[in-house]
Amino acid sequence: MNDSSPPHLGESARLNGAGPSDRIDDPADELGLKARMRGTVAVTAAEDRAGELFSIVASLGYQPIDGRTAGTGDKVVASLIQAACDPHLELTRSQSKHAYVVLLDLPNTFEQRLAAARAGAHGVISGEFSPNELGAWLSECDKLSQQRPSYTILIVDDDDLAGEFYAAALEAAGMHTHLVTSASQVLAAVETQRPDLVLMDMHMPDASGLEVAQLIRQSRAALAMPIIFLSAERDRQVRFNARAVGGDDFITKPIDPDELAAVVRLRAERAVTLRRLMERDSLTDLLNHASFKARLAEEMERSRRTGAPLTVCILDIDHFKAINDTWGHQVGDYVIQALARALRRSLRQNDVVSRYGGEEFAILLLDTGIDHAEVVIDRIRSQFSEIPMLAGDTRFTVSFSAGVASNRADLDTVSIINEADVALYQAKRGGRNRVATARRA
Amino acid sequence: MSAATDAAFQDRMAKLRAKFCERSLEQADLLDRLAETSRTAGLPPQVRSIAHTLAGSAGLYGFCDITEAAAALEDGVVAGAPTAEVLTLIDGLSRIIRHRITPAAEAASD
């Protein structure tokens, strides 16, 4: 669980009274969140624009610095450049070599866009500026700056020396592999290894590759799992049949190790991207409602087997309709993204955070009892309620209410969510900006 | 990093290749014995499985001609070719393994 100290509330309370004209260079620092900052962003903009951009960058969770004085030691992950400050795109050209460059206020003409692309700009924001759009670009940069994802590949080949060859080639290219040499082991391996892709020999003594592919596809969870068959050139008819059972690709044996790794990586990348689109909410990149419920069911089952505690939290932004009505939907979206970021930043990697719907989030805290969960969520609540949100020149703060419920033997996925929902209702009725637990609700 | 230029990968591949060579020579011995048996007791099913294994893996380790000979044998068995023809194919495969996999030939293989 996250054990970092609570923020200096006395300091941040001062921020709440800040008028529209007060400059907040780094609100996240004031909140003691800097240690969890996502990276440094260089801002190169005219005097009248820089202050606003600094505030927005900080509110998105990044450390802003002046692009004109940034050195290579600053480890800038992204660079925001106002187009007027870089008329010949020299800065864009030099910064794009080591950072993710987003050009702001670029005239939206074909010539300008082409020149920006040629200078290496990764993103362009033309026309009306929105913090959401900037947040989306910076999230993109986060994904790029993370190490190349390592895919898990399940190799199925009855010949262990062929299987070992594929494993060596894929592992040399940074992938994880798991080798099974019998078709009968495939289903168990799919379940335990959760591979991103299956690389399978067409011909095995105990079952053909086609039959095994059909078995894999019988499970809903593996419907979208790509299967690449390894086959010899002479298997043309078999290949045709394989298309019918969802064989996604064929690799003709023998194959060069580099070529094998390139084909497998490309397929795995595409599969992971597609799965992400299916499972994630596009605004926040958190799990969506359906994926959360599926994950909750799995974790409830695991909890039943192991006896490990598990807590569900449903939280809802207070007076969200008023935010939308007062500031517009763009600001509403910005608040939702801000809460998504705060939750991800404050919880452990293995906690499950989802956008449950509208302004509602659902969280699954693994191996965590209700008392501990209540403390954690309440700490996040307290910190979040201090973060200044921006709508044009105005700052405001937002709070949320939350209900938590822990698992018991008599609960299923529906009833545990109901209990958390009832607790959330109690928190709302109790005055909002608070956490209620199902036990005491 | 390209797999082909990674020293650890090259080392791992060299070990796998050595194992493959060792196993192939054993399979050649076994094929010779099975050929003897087939003359009197019909074709044992092991012939097809050895041919299948060799057809699948020899090319990976740089022995494309072994793959071709093994594939011809497997296809012959599957198609129900006459025993005399299958025996010729077994003999061809066994010879090509012994010819290709010797310490000197191994070093020169592609």
Concise overview:
The complex is a heterodimer of chains A (441) and B (110). Chain A has 441 residues and is α/β, with parallel strands linked by helices. Chain A has helices spanning 9-16, 27-30, 47-59, 90-95, 110-118, 131-145, 160-172, 186-193, 209-217, 236-244, 257-279, 289-306, 320-327, 329-346, 370-384, 413-429, and strands at residues 40-44, 63-66, 76-82, 100-104, 123-125, 152-156, 176-180, 197-201, 227-232, 249-253, 310-317, 352-357, 360-366, 389-391, 394-396, 400-406, 435-437.
* Helix count, DSSP H or I runs of 4 or more residues of chain B: 5
Give me the strand/helix succession of chain B.
HHHHH
Overall 3D geometry of chain B? elongated
Oligomeric organization of the protein chains: heterodimer
Strand-residue proportion of chain A: 15-25%
Count of discrete structural domains of chain A = 3
Average pLDDT of chain A, to the nearest integer? 83
Question: Can you give a write-up of this model?
Answer:
The complex is a heterodimer of chains A (441) and B (110). With 441 residues, chain A is of the alpha/beta class. Chain A folds into three domains: 37-145, Rossmann fold; 152-279, 3-Layer(aba) Sandwich (Rossmann fold), CATH 3.40.50; 289-437, Reverse transcriptase/Diguanylate cyclase domain (Alpha-Beta Plaits). Chain A is 44% helix and 20% strand. Chain A contains 16 helices and 17 strands. In chain A, the strands form four sheets. Chain A has a five-stranded parallel sheet with strand order 2-1-3-4-5. A five-stranded parallel sheet of chain A has the order 7-6-8-9-10, sandwiched between helices. In chain A, α9 links the parallel β8 and β9 (227-232). In chain A, α7 crosses α11 and α13 crosses α14 (329-346). Residues 1-36 of chain A have low confidence and may be disordered. Chain B is mainly alpha-helical and 110 residues long. Chain B has one domain (27-108). Chain B is 78% helix and 0% strand. Chain B has five helices and no strands. Chain B has helices at 7-41, 46-57, 64-78, 83-100, 103-108. Chain B is elongated and about 50 Å long. Chain B starts with 6 loop residues before the first helix and ends with a helix. Chain A binds chain B through residues 157-159, 161-162, 164-165, 168-169, 171-173, 201, 203, 205, 230, 232, 234, 253-258, 261, and chain B through 1-4, 6, 8-9, 12-13, 16, 19-20, 23, 49, 52-53, 55-61, 64, 67, 71, 75.
